[in-house]
Predict the 3D structure of the following.
Amino acid sequence: MAILTRDDPAPAPAPAPSGAAAVRLEHLVKRFSGEVGRRVARSTGASPDADTVTAVDGIDLEIRDGEFFSMLGPSGSGKTTTLRLIAGFELPTEGRVYLHGEDVTQRAPFERDVNTVFQDYALFPHMTVGENVAYGLTIRKVPRPERERRVGDALAMVRLNGYERRKPSQLSGGQRQRVALARALVNRPRVLLLDEPLGALDLKLREEMQLELKAIQRDVRITFIYVTHDQEEALTMSDRLAVFNRGRVEQVGSPAEMYERPATAFVAGFVGTSNLLRGDAAMALVGDAGLYTVRPEKIRMAEPNAAVADDEVGADGTIRNVVYLGPDTRYIVVLDAGTELVVTEQNLATSSMEALAAEGRRVRLIWKRHHNFRIGDQEGSRGGGA
Amino acid sequence: MSGRGARWGLIAATVGTLVFIYFPLAVVIAYAFNSSGSTSWPPAGFSLRWVDAALANTGLRDAFVTSVAIAFGASAVALVLGSLAAVAVARYRFFGRQAISFVVVFPIALPGIVTGMALSTTFATTGLPLGLLAIVIGHATFCVVLVYNNVVARMRRVSRSLEEASSDLGADTWQTFRRVTFPTVRSAMLAGALLAFALSFDEVIVTIFTAGGVQTLPIWIFRSFRLANQVALVNVAGLAAILLSVVPVYFASRLTSDTGAVARG
């Protein structure tokens, strides 16, 4: 969309040399202590009595110019704090923040060329939609005609033209979300930070907005840094993502890499369903006592005496639980080898009655040997330990 | 059956309570417009005679003006100090933050007689003369809390992210205060000031200790109450006191009930 590429002859941020980092985080650490620490500890459920909480525990990240980058993790994993450190709402205890090669660690939020879309939208309740969107331009003393044109364009982009005179309280949740997006994008920041922006919307609206956000990002070629705890959202929208756990980054990569080759047991569990084989079960089935994962949709469920080919693994067990999900059914199978696996099957010819009747039945699970993926040795050092 | 019985019981209790509270006020208002000069029930008829007489009475008029001036002064002091304290406590972290909250609220719990005594002694020791200024200072001690409480409550309800959003969009600290923080707490400040005005206007105990020779409306009423020839005027003065307390409280509650819309968004 033309409106958001800089219209002056200055080079647009888009055609940056490959590998140029929009944001670089160098060994970022953030500890909260005292009163704030106790509040953070309570809200994240980390440890209710702790006085000091390490929200971000040594993060190194490079986010490329123009990419849609997600920070994915459970609540309390440090993803939002990392975002706030990039925006400048928090100052790091240790480490540095670079924006386009420039050290901005000690700069105030209003001195950084980033804009934020807040989880609660943070629209100014005493201003109209138009005044909200114009806020950044008004502060920067952009002349009135240009300001009005850009506000109009930004509202058109989020399909809210004609809403200039409404108050935020007169809008629905989805509309407020769009206003918040327009208010940030109208300033043409080089990096846009989004803090779970779709968290408050219902499922259908959320899916619509996911597509829309992605389309907008492709149009404006601004770097999007997107915080979410929803793995599906992160996988659908991102060019690359980082999985956060306990204030650290477990893995960085493309959605496909994350899903197919998780680096740690935590990533395997958080991105998709964790089907882990370890110890004796791994020894019995794979022939090695390491840590393995196999994705639920790669597993075929067969009769107890079905033939197993040479390149396949066969595991006998009993169906303990059946969860009917509409398009597919999820079976939880207790293996004789001493572990549990989740199997998903599309309901091609199965009715819900048939699927649910399978509970308690003996089955043989079969999957291709090469679908066993060996997870690195990080389980102890990162996924499990403190 | 018990449901209906309870319902009627509650209605009766409510009506009884309201009558208990408002009937005496109604009597004062009725006598203020009585055409007869004696307080005998029922009033003889409607007349503005005593209102005219009250307006003509310089002692009463001066007392009224004095009270209004003091209430303005005390609420102005409360507005400034209370708002500043509230912004500090709600937005900044510093040593003794929680103690300030307690210290500001404390004077309202303190018996007026103690406040009055203490202030009177202090003024005598420091050589500050009793009178208008002393009364304003005395009233301000317990008026600050009204503004403080209102503004603190509003600032807690207004999301912190509003200020962060403003800063994120390029506004420095002062621009953020002027364009975002102040407009969202403005009505809470005004509500607090109105309550402070009402509280100061009818205050008696601290006033007695700090007034010196100055007569406020409540003191004038108190002194004139037993004088037979002033009885009718006292009712008019009472009416004035009721109005100047009720009207600010009414507007204050209107302003704070708005906050739902302000805090959402």
